[in-house]
């Protein structure tokens, strides 16, 4: 995705301040009010292998949505799948979710973008979404999605729904042994998350970075 960072600015500006982002921030603030079980960033890293394994189980759901088997889900395929599953999302909601997750603006969601889509669907705790979670078979993935939400809450120290550079440094320095990690490590991780370079990381940006951290590569389908 590194090659397309320059083309993401418009998409990012459109998402920032959108109704969907407002819902995400509100949902994350509500979750943050309950606290997090994580005590250190090391605790997040320890969960990488299990999360990677769980992500790869999403492949079956991805293939169900990818009707022409071209390795990407376009907007029409997403609409068709929601219709077949009788999930009552409006066209606007479907389009908003699609555009939020199509980070490289090529009008198609690849596998790691689809994982982000599933996580966002999970976070939106609305009646239609609860219905979607059941029909899309996300029940078995709930523990993984909870871990991701928990990890973001751990990073979001002031509970405003975003992660800042200072919060990332503070989180990286909170280790179970009491040792302080290098600020360079914190800044590198932050830069990997801050796609739009505005100094604040949303849950969506965090998810995209996380898929890379655990080894879900956007071009992995090309190797099959």
From TrEMBL:
Keyword field: Calcium
Gene Ontology MF term list: calcium ion binding
Residues annotated as domain EF-hand: 53-88, 143-178, 181-216
Record bears the keyword Zinc: no
InterPro entries, A to Z: CML21-like (IPR052591), EF-hand-dom_pair (IPR011992), EF_Hand_1_Ca_BS (IPR018247), EF_hand_dom (IPR002048)
Highest taxon of source: Eukaryota
Name of protein: EF-hand domain-containing protein
Species, as recorded: Panicum hallii
